Amino acid sequence: MEELNMIMSNFVEVECGLISLSTVLAALEEAYEFDGKKELRDNILVIKRQIDSLQEELSEYITKLDTYIISE
């Protein structure tokens, strides 16, 4: 049970890191929005969408693991 709690904690840390990175990318996207660097802004947008997708998947896994831990 203790090992599952450690795994859960690691998932939460990764999720927080993804949220932080997404925040930084959103700020970069906004900074380049009016700068005329469309290619860079587009790349940032693609990366941000991928991170958002990963964060959603990770959240689902955390919820499933949390439910498992509670049921044990």
Look at the helices and sheets and give the structural class.
mainly alpha
Q: Helix coverage percent of residues?
A: over 70%
Tell me the strand percentage band: under 5%
Mean pLDDT comes to: 82
Distance from N terminus to C terminus (CA atoms, Å) equals 8 Å
Biggest β-sheet description: none
User: How many H/I helices?
Assistant: 2
Order of secondary-structure elements: HH
Oligomer: single chain
| Shape summary | elongated
Low-confidence sequence ranges: none
User: What does the radius of gyration come to?
Assistant: 16 Å
Number of strands: 0
Short characterization:
By secondary structure, the chain is mainly alpha-helical. 92% of the residues lie in helices and 0% in strands.
Structure description:
With 72 residues, the chain is mostly helical. The chain is 92% helix and 0% strand. It is built from two helices and no strands. The chain has helices at residues 2-33, 38-71. Helix 1 runs antiparallel to helix 2. The longest helix is centred in the last third of the chain and has 34 residues, at 38-71. The chain is elongated. The mean pLDDT is 82.
Describe the secondary-structure layout.
Blueprint: H1 2-33, H2 38-71
